[in-house]
């Protein structure tokens, strides 16, 4: 079993109590995060395959009058960020993940985002992340420092590994919130 399969399996095997305890800590860290309180445009993913449940985070962001955007995969392994509100209808994409239907009028450029919460399969102490293998986030965040975007990974502690074999194009996250 490779690292991606192994960590996904570990994540799925977390008990409900372990998952809830970790998520409570993660939610508190987000609520107390100075960058989150200052941000207006925040991209976040809808949870899939045992990832940290982002629904309570999204609801909190809406309560704080933040504009929330969901990543939508499009051609050439690019991400489009579409506005997401409680009334946004969702459809399943080719990966089986819920997303808004593509509507260019509700999209925002990545440069307009303040924070991008990123999913990940595994991460290491240096901030490197392993995603699902499509390179969508690495492409989207390639210039995040120049664009003054804060990418933040969300994970469970069981997803941390000693060291990932990163490639030159892999994006090192400045912050990963986990418990």
TrEMBL record:
It is an enzyme of class 6 (ligase). Its cofactor is Mg(2+). InterPro entries: FTHF_cligase, FTHF_cligase-like_sf, NagB/RpiA_transferase-like. ATP binds at residues 129-137. Gene3D superfamilies: NagB/RpiA/CoA transferase-like. GO terms for molecular function: 5-formyltetrahydrofolate cyclo-ligase activity; ATP binding; metal ion binding. Substrate binds at residues 46, 51. One of its GO terms (biological process) is tetrahydrofolate interconversion. It catalyses: (6S)-5-formyl-5,6,7,8-tetrahydrofolate + ATP = (6R)-5,10-methenyltetrahydrofolate + ADP + phosphate. Its EC number is 6.3.3.2. Pfam families: 5-FTHF_cyc-lig. Keywords: ATP-binding, Ligase, Magnesium, Metal-binding, Nucleotide-binding. Belongs to the 5-formyltetrahydrofolate cyclo-ligase family. PANTHER family: 5-FORMYLTETRAHYDROFOLATE CYCLO-LIGASE, ATPASE INHIBITOR/5-FORMYLTETRAHYDROFOLATE CYCLO-LIGASE. This is 5-formyltetrahydrofolate cyclo-ligase.
């Amino acid at each position: 079993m490779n690292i991606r399969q192994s960590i996904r399996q570990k994540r799925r095997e977390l008990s409900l109590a372990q998952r809830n305890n970790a998520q409570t800590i993660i939610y508190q860290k987000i609520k107390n995060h100075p960058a989150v309180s200052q941000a207006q445009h925040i991209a976040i993913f809808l949870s899939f395959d045992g990832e940290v449940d982002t629904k309570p985070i999204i609801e909190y962001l809406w309560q704080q009058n933040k504009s929330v955007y969901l990543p939508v995969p499009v051609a050439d392994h690019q991400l489009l960020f579409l506005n997401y509100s409680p009334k946004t209808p969702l459809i399943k994409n080719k990966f089986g993940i819920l997303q808004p239907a593509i509507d260019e009028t509700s999209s925002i450029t990545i440069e307009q985002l303040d924070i991008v919460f990123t999913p990940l399969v595994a991460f290491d102490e240096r901030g490197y992340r392993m995603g699902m293998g499509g390179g969508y986030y690495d492409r989207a965040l390639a210039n995040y420092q120049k664009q003054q975007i804060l990418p933040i990974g969300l994970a469970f502690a069981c997803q941390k590994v000693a060291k990932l074999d990163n490639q030159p194009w892999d994006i090192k996250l400045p912050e990963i919130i986990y418990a």
